[in-house]
Design brief:
The protein is an alpha+beta fold and 225 residues long. The chain folds into two domains: 6-102, no CATH class; 117-209, no CATH class. Helix content is 43%, strand content 12%. The strands form two sheets. Strands 1-2-3-4 form a four-stranded antiparallel β-sheet. A two-stranded antiparallel sheet has the order 5-6. A hairpin with a 6-residue loop joins strand 5 (198-200) and strand 6 (207-209). Helix 4 (135-143) runs antiparallel to helix 5 and helix 5 (149-162) runs parallel beside helix 7 (179-196).
């Protein structure tokens, strides 16, 4: 059984039509579910919901009096909807700004879309570079800190297949700050050495033949090391 990632769920929701509140007909806002369970302790069942944040919405306006009268709490209700459905419910809020911290506003959505497009563009460039055995372009994407992590991770994986020995030093010297990218870099360096029957001197780090007994660069004995 395949499970969707949070990003995949978000992308699916963004492709759907935004619902309107059933009580006031205002466009509902996309809301990121907080990281704790609710009500029966089983969780929300989705990382995102749609919530009406119209302060003139009838359930919200009336909710303050209803909850105060019945439960002696200062709270109210906001209408919520499960994405992709017509299932509406109400969630409690305990202040006029309650739950607003989880609203995913238009700027965040724009950033999400920009990242998606950057990843798509990066993968297209990598595909063309891989087919052309263009290790220079792959290295450029890998070492560019402004590229998305997914693009850099894929570039780090590809360079092991098409990179030359000249790529070893830049790869070893790269400071990527991402464990997955770094893991792929280490694996690619090993693949490059395997293709060229080489290794790195344990003393001076220069590239030498795999079967070398004396390093031609520092003249140290490397037999068995």
């Amino acid at each position: 059984m395949a499970f969707e990632t949070k990003q995949e769920v978000l992308e699916k929701i963004l492709s759907q039509k935004k619902p309107l509140c059933r009580y006031c007909s205002e466009a509902m806002k996309l809301w990121e579910v907080p990281p704790f369970s609710f009500s029966d302790g089983l969780g929300w069942g989705t990382p995102y919901l749609y919530v009406c944040f119209n302060d003139e919405c009838p359930p919200y306006v009336q909710g303050w009096d209803d909850i105060q009268e019945n439960y002696a709490y200062n709270a109210s209700y906001r209408c919520m909807c499960y994405p992709g459905t017509e299932q509406y419910e109400c969630i409690p809020v305990f202040s006029p700004v309650g739950a607003t911290g989880q609203i995913i506003d238009d700027q965040v959505l724009a950033e999400q879309e920009a990242l998606k497009q950057a990843v798509k563009r990066g993968f297209e460039i990598l595909t063309d570079a891989y087919m052309a055995k263009d290790g220079v372009t792959v290295m450029r994407l890998l070492l560019d800190a402004t590229e998305p992590a997914r693009v850099r991770a894929k570039a780090a994986e590809m360079i092991g297949d098409i990179g030359s020995l000249e790529a070893v030093e830049p790869l070893r010297s790269a400071k990527v700050g991402n464990q997955i990218v770094q893991k792929n870099i280490d694996a690619s360096v090993s693949k490059i050495h395997a293709r060229h029957f080489t290794r790195e001197c344990p003393f001076c780090a220069e590239v030498i033949k795999k079967r070398a007994k004396i390093c031609k660069h520092c003249c140290k004995d490397v037999a068995g090391q």
